[in-house]
């Protein structure tokens, strides 16, 4: 289990975008540690049953989003909004398929979810993308989402926490996915934290 350093600011709201299986798993772990550390309004808002993470959960496989929602609920410290984007098929570990096909087919629905979360904030101070750059959804859909957010929310900073693949990973397209994603991160993200997944 990795230790997550908790940084948070008062009087600002950060909307986190958990994209792909890895993004949802890591994002859920981050929100758990934020809740345990007592992070406030920057990352959580008040819901009907307690604290709700300021997050949009995205994956092409329903079980990933549902798993993150269930894990948060079982922990009892916070919950995710039940609504998240999910389809029945994955992105086939292919950046181009995630970017061109999956993202294009559901970007309107994704932006509706992002807008809904932004409207809950008194002041939006940025987006935080949590994703892997090896698979198809985290890399391809994540890249497209960053591009669309930079156009739709000009001047709003974005930080990407990007999990690197292990060098001898099982995804044959991971190196191409990484290169294409890094090019988009360089162009559309205001900051990038590369996280080594070797350990």
List the helices and strands and how they pair.
Blueprint: E1 13-19, H1 20-37, E2 44-47, E3 50-53, E4 55-58, H2 62-75, H3 95-119, E5 124-132, H4 136-152, E6 158-163, H5 174-188, E7 191-195
Parallel strand pairs: 1-4, 1-5, 5-6, 6-7
Antiparallel strand pairs: 2-3
Helix pairs in contact: 1-2, 1-4, 3-4, 4-5
Features:
199 residues, alpha/beta, 5-stranded parallel β-sheet, two-stranded antiparallel ribbon, globular
Overview of the structural elements:
This protein is an alpha/beta fold. The protein is 45% helix and 20% strand. The chain contains five helices and seven strands. Strands 4-1-5-6-7 form a five-stranded parallel beta sheet. Strands 2-3 form a two-stranded antiparallel ribbon. Strand 2 (44-47) and strand 3 form a beta hairpin. The N and C termini lie close together (10 Å).
